[in-house]
Design goal:
The structure holds two protein chains of two kinds.
Chain A: E1 2-6, E2 9-18, E3 21-29, H1 30-64, H2 67-85, E4 88-91, E5 94-97
Antiparallel strand pairs in A: 1-2, 2-3, 4-5
Chain B: H1 7-24, H2 28-65, H3 69-87, H4 93-120, H5 132-163
The chains are: A alpha+beta, B mainly alpha.
Chain lengths: ~100, ~190
């Protein structure tokens, strides 16, 4: 995709995916070609900025919920340790009291 | 704001995990060691994890309140009530920890609900709408948060059931939970 110079003239083409093939589509020539190229470039930058913004937003939310992982890890380790120390054991995912414990 | 467990607390958790594995592998001497380690480590681990839970909740409240002091205060009060309601009148340290976990997950679910409903609202201008890729992340979070929330409730019910007739390991730690007249709720049926 882009501006192409041929025989002193400028032409602007875009790429279009058509199934597995990528086709070159003619957009325009001369000043119109430059204008269309600038417009497309601005649109591309806007999309990139938008993607970066939402990515940062997602990371911000993930950071603010990361404490849950710490909390869950501590709770899980302690519960397991507490139950084992109290004489329980796990049988097929189910906690059971050991005989004589 | 620091929302991670200190390294020494993580080390203690690692030690408890290793000892638990040894007990599960049938090493009887490890049970005694596990009891000792629990006596020594549990108060610090529980108090730090509960503290992180509360600080994390404040961060989430700020996110969802979006600088509206009324929403912020309402959520803080709602969490206090919920915490007291779930923990009950005389919670064990483990119950306190699980209560923080349940409250945090409930809050996360609320935050995500708010985010999705704001995005799906017809009043939101088109340019302020988040892309579908972002919403897909949010939907995944919602699913995961709901699953973890139910799991945490189940864990609390299980701990209560097993604690009922077990003298167990005594862990002395003081964590203040807002007093309430409300009684401990029934165990969830899940």
């Amino acid at each position: 995709m882009g501006l192409e110079k041929r025989n002193g003239h400028v032409y602007y083409y875009k790429s279009r995916r058509d199934g597995e093939k990528v086709r070159k589509v003619y957009v325009g020539a001369g000043d119109f070609a430059h204008l269309a190229a600038r417009q497309d470039e601005a649109e591309r930058l806007r999309r990139e900025e938008e993607v970066a913004y939402w990515e940062a937003e997602r990371e911000r939310l993930e950071r603010s919920t990361a404490f849950l992982g710490e909390l869950e890890e501590a709770a899980e380790v302690l519960i397991r340790a507490y139950l084992l120390a109290s004489g329980f054991h796990q049988h097929k995912g189910q906690w059971r009291r050991q005989r004589g414990a | 704001m620091e929302l991670e467990l200190h390294k020494d607390v993580k080390d203690r958790l690692g030690e408890l995990r290793t000892l638990s594995e040894r007990v599960e592998d049938g090493d009887n001497s490890a049970r005694k060691e596990l009891r000792r380690a629990l006596r020594e480590s549990a108060p610090e681990v529980i108090s730090q994890a509960s503290d992180i839970g509360r600080r994390g909740q404040r961060v989430l409240i700020k996110t969802v309140a979006a600088n509206d002091p009324l929403t912020e205060e309402a959520l803080v009060a709602r969490l206090e009530l919920m915490r007291a309601d779930i923990a009950g009148p005389d919670p064990s340290p483990l119950e306190v920890l699980l209560t923080e976990r349940i409250c945090s997950l409930w809050l996360l679910i609320e935050v995500l609900e708010w985010l999705v409903s704001a995005q799906l609202s017809g009043d939101l201008p088109r340019e302020q709408r988040s892309p579908m890729s972002f919403l897909q992340h949010v939907f995944k979070w919602q699913e995961s948060a709901n699953r973890r929330f139910l799991c945490a409730i189940r864990e609390l019910a299980r701990v209560r059931k097993l604690q009922n007739n077990v003298p167990g390991v005594q862990v002395n730690t003081q964590i203040n939970v807002a007093s309430t007249e409300s009684q401990r709720g029934e165990e969830p049926n899940c």
